[in-house]
From TrEMBL, chain A:
Protein name: Sedlin
Pfam families recorded: Sedlin_N
Superkingdom in the source lineage: Eukaryota
PANTHER family named among the record's database cross-references: TRAFFICKING PROTEIN PARTICLE COMPLEX SUBUNIT 2
SUPFAM superfamilies on file: SNARE-like
GO terms (BP aspect): endoplasmic reticulum to Golgi vesicle-mediated transport
UniProtKB/TrEMBL annotation, chain B:
Gene3D superfamilies tied to this protein: Trafficking protein particle complex subunit 3
Pfam families xref list: TRAPP (PF04051)
Organism per entry: Sordaria brevicollis
Organism placement in taxonomy: Eukaryota, Fungi, Dikarya, Ascomycota, Pezizomycotina
Subcellular location: Endoplasmic reticulum; Golgi apparatus, cis-Golgi network
Assigned keywords, A-Z: Endoplasmic reticulum, ER-Golgi transport, Golgi apparatus, Transport
Protein name per its UniProtKB record: Trafficking protein particle complex subunit BET3
UniProt record similarity statement: Belongs to the TRAPP small subunits family. BET3 subfamily.
Signal sequence coordinates: none
Keyword hit for Transport: yes
Domain of life assignment: Eukaryota
The keyword Endoplasmic reticulum appears for this protein: yes
Cellular component terms per the entry's GO annotation: endoplasmic reticulum; Golgi apparatus; TRAPP complex
GO biological process: Golgi vesicle transport; macroautophagy
UniProtKB/TrEMBL annotation, chain C:
Polar residues bias spans: 27-36
Compositional bias of kind Low complexity: 37-50
Oligomer and partners: Part of the multisubunit transport protein particle (TRAPP) complex.
Domain of life assignment: Eukaryota
Gene Ontology CC, one term: Golgi apparatus
Region Disordered, annotated ranges: 27-64
A biological-process GO annotation: endoplasmic reticulum to Golgi vesicle-mediated transport
Localization (cell): Endoplasmic reticulum; Golgi apparatus, cis-Golgi network
Protein name: Trafficking protein particle complex subunit
Keywords annotated in UniProt: Endoplasmic reticulum, ER-Golgi transport, Golgi apparatus, Transport
Record InterPro entries: Longin-like_dom_sf (IPR011012), TRAPPC (IPR007233)
Length: 216, 192, 181
């Protein structure tokens, strides 16, 4: 499981980003994004902001749970009272773990997926997030297939890494957000921090990393 | 007054006679002041230190009266060592609820260090990462001024400065206090 | 108990506050109408005592002379307590403190803070020690209303910042309460 975490300011400006991998079940905490996926992640997160705006007034919660999905990338969101968005993109490993993938059909769908997502990525029209959406809709058939197989494969597993929609994952991410939020508040309490300024604090980064290790 | 008696006194005053105020309010207020001074002086940190010290000095000139009133001090400290005890165990205790450790005396008993295990002014603070603040800014420099102003009112001229600060990445926060001289009583002007 | 007058001197030996309740006995025989009347105050260097029974020229002159006299009194008192305090320390050691002296007419009480603020009170001869009273004035009135007033200067040159409404009111109430007891 690879994660990409971003804090988005009130002007939809990025304040902080950090990618990491799971530390559960022997994970080494390293993100397994391809170079292209790394860049794509920013666009996915950015496009999710539209969904956040739709969802944010529907309930009074700060934790909006899973709000968006792009192929195998799942996006969870947490809103602060001052309209700062914490977005976590989590992506189960594309090559599913050996034991559970045994029963799967050949990984043609996922490999097809990666190739198609690569193809969308090389499109020059990626300068704005809206251009990602049409390409998403053209490919929904493929992504649907892949998620059902993924869901079927990991239903037996309680691992949060392999199952992005399970209640355990939801809870783990809630805890992660809660801890990050606490540290975020401390970081912005520094007198030298101004609203919507990029968070450069190495201490904060270390604490986010620690929260990631602890819960994800 | 012995060290243990001083800490008992500080504890008692803190518990009974001090009005408490939300610590975060103080932290944010002080932090904002420092940040604003940094802005006003365009990050000339030497000047910022100077301004903080000056502000502290003006606070100290008044704060001493409050200290004397609250601690019911009727007599002077008999020596500088006693003064140090009272500063650490009563003064800092009742105004900031911290008790810095007194250490590193010089042999002539005129210089000592206050080592702060915790510094309520610096909670949450991270110095600007402009590459200079870490080397030049003494964030809590106001405390130096307060001490200097307060001691001047009780006829001690001292020199105070920080020599390390955890905010800068040092292991401790340490302030050096040096007694320059005792100030003599002022005499009334001669009548013509 | 009768309280005649009250003075505060700062560390620069200047009289920064004075208040007279009754004419001190020493002045009673000489020039009674030149003394500020009951409950009026006379600051250091400020002339605020007027007497309606005199013509303007005369009253102006007497006001000036009263002010001069008040400031002379203050200087005299400071000189006295300063010398006595130093003498006491010389004879009794650094920790000894001068507390009061008494004449046939009045008693002078002295209290000094560690910040070299000096309080002096003149009362009748039968009054017990007023040291504690002056300590209370320092803690409850001086610190609260003068020191903690952010608009008042740190150094009270010419009495600046001392003579504010709250301090005045508080002192009056405190002293009136004492006398009534």
């Amino acid at each position: 499981m690879s994660y990409y975490f971003a804090i988005i300011g009130t002007q939809d400006n990025p304040l902080f980003e950090y990618d990491f991998g799971t530390s559960k079940q022997g994970g080494d905490g390293m993100a397994r994004f391809t170079e292209q996926a790394r860049q794509l992640n920013q666009f996915i997160i950015h496009s999710s902001l539209d969904i956040v705006e739709e969802v944010q007034w529907t309930n009074g919660q700060m934790y909006l749970k899973l709000i968006d999905r792009f192929f195998t990338s799942y996006i969870s969101c947490f809103l602060t009272a001052s309209n700062i968005k914490f977005l976590l993109l989590h992506q189960p490993p594309t090559t599913t773990s050996s034991s559970s993938s045994a029963g799967l059909p050949p990984s043609s769908s996922s490999s097809a997926l990666t190739s198609s997502s690569t193809s969308t990525l090389v499109q020059p029209s990626h300068s704005s997030s809206s251009s990602v959406l049409p390409s998403l809709s053209t490919l929904t058939g493929g992504s649907n297939a892949s998620t059902t197989t993924l869901g079927g494969a990991t239903r037996t597993s309680t691992s949060i890494a392999a199952n992005p929609t399970s209640p355990q994952t939801e809870e783990a991410i809630r805890n992660f957000f809660a801890e990050v939020y606490e540290n975020y508040v401390k970081a912005i309490m520094s007198p030298f921090y101004k609203t919507n300024m990029e968070i450069r604090s190495p201490v904060f980064r270390a604490r986010v990393a620690a929260a990631g290790r602890k819960y994800l | 007054m012995s060290a243990s008696k001083a800490s008992r006194l500080g504890e008692e005053i803190w518990k009974t006679r001090i009005e408490k105020v939300n610590a975060e309010l103080v932290v944010l207020t002080y932090g904002t002041i420092v940040a604003q001074i940094c802005k006003d002086f365009e990050n000339d940190y030497t000047e910022v230190n100077k301004q903080l010290d000056k502000m502290g000095y003006n606070i100290g000139l008044r704060l001493i009266e409050d200290y004397l009133a609250k601690s019911n001090t009727m007599r002077r400290c008999s020596n500088f060592r006693e003064t140090a005890e009272m500063i650490a165990k009563v003064g800092f205790k009742i105004f900031l609820n911290v008790t810095p450790t007194i250490t590193n005396w010089t042999s002539d008993n005129k210089q000592f260090s206050l080592v702060f295990d915790e510094n309520p002014l610096a909670d949450f603070v991270e110095l600007p990462d402009d590459g200079r603040a870490q080397d030049e800014l003494w964030f809590s420099n106001i405390l130096c001024g307060v001490l200097r102003g307060a001691l001047e009112m009780v006829q001690m001229q001292v020199e105070t400065h920080f020599i390390s600060d955890v905010l800068r990445g040092n292991d401790t926060t340490e302030m050096r206090v040096t007694l320059v001289r005792y100030i003599d009583d002022e005499l009334p002007p001669e009548d013509d | 108990m009768v309280i005649y007058s009250f003075y505060i001197f700062d560390r620069h030996t200047e009289c920064i506050y004075s208040k007279t309740w009754l004419p001190p006995p020493s002045a009673a025989t000489t020039s009674q109408h030149d003394i500020p009347t009951n409950n009026s105050t006379s600051g250091a260097g400020s002339a605020n005592s007027t007497d309606p029974h005199h013509n303007p020229m005369r009253s102006a002159r007497s006001a000036v002379s009263a002010a001069n006299k008040a400031s002379d009194d203050a200087k005299l008192i400071f000189g006295t307590v300063f010398s006595l305090r130093n003498m006491v320390r010389k004879l009794g050691g650094e920790d000894d403190a001068f507390i009061s002296y008494r004449t046939a007419q009045y008693k002078l009480h002295y209290y000094e803070t560690a910040s070299n603020l000096r309080f002096v009170m003149l009362t009748d001869t039968g009054t017990l020690s007023m040291r504690n009273v002056m300590h209370q004035i320092y803690i409850n009135l001086w610190c609260e209303y003068v020191v903690k007033n952010p608009l008042s200067p740190v150094e009270h040159k010419g009495g600046a910042g001392v003579r504010n409404e709250l301090f005045e009111l508080g002192l009056n109430q405190f002293i009136t309460g004492l006398i009534a007891r």
